[in-house]
Specification:
The chain is mainly beta. The chain is 8% helix and 60% strand.
Length: 226
Amino acid sequence: MKRKTIFTLIFLISISLILRAQSGCNAYYPFEKGTKFEITNFNKKGKKEGVVRYQVSNVENNVATLATQILDAKGKELTSTSYNVTCQGDLISIDFKSLMNPELLTKYGDLEVDMTGNNIEFPNNLEVGQALKDANMNMVINMGGMNMNMTINMIDRKVISKESVTTPAGTFDCFVLSYASEIKMGVTYSFTSKEWIAKGVGLVKNETYNNKGSLMSYSELTNLER
């Protein structure tokens, strides 16, 4: 798998967590129709690598549709997609398909693709020390007599601290979460991440590290419009 594709997968895994509940589901992440926000991704040296623009395009029966536009570093659109996020009492359930890189779906769009997995779940009553459920996605691509398999696992999710964070979008009081991820596609790529989330806002910052603990990339909330 190309290095660029790996970094795109890492980026999308982190930003797939940005929609949580506000209104009836209580506390975390925008859940109002028309809300727009932007996450910008940087490499370890601070060079801009891409942008994802989000809009809550519809909210009905406690299900929000999140439309995304993925841009490269120069602002050229690479692809667009959407997925649903469901409010279930005090829990948000995010479609496991959000872990998938839309560029890969476009590449294999003419082939038979079967996806299964466990949704990303996120409670509204976060506390430091809290453990969160694992999530995963399995994809099998029928390439005409030969199957190609891909698995993404998000494991060891937990709330580790509270911190104040400043980005171009403002200053936010955040919970800090950590988790490990594995991407298996012939070979296995593994990395760990930390993310900062704020009430009524969502993802404010994310940092991704290799298995030696060195920073690989980071992303920040760069715009928020309600």
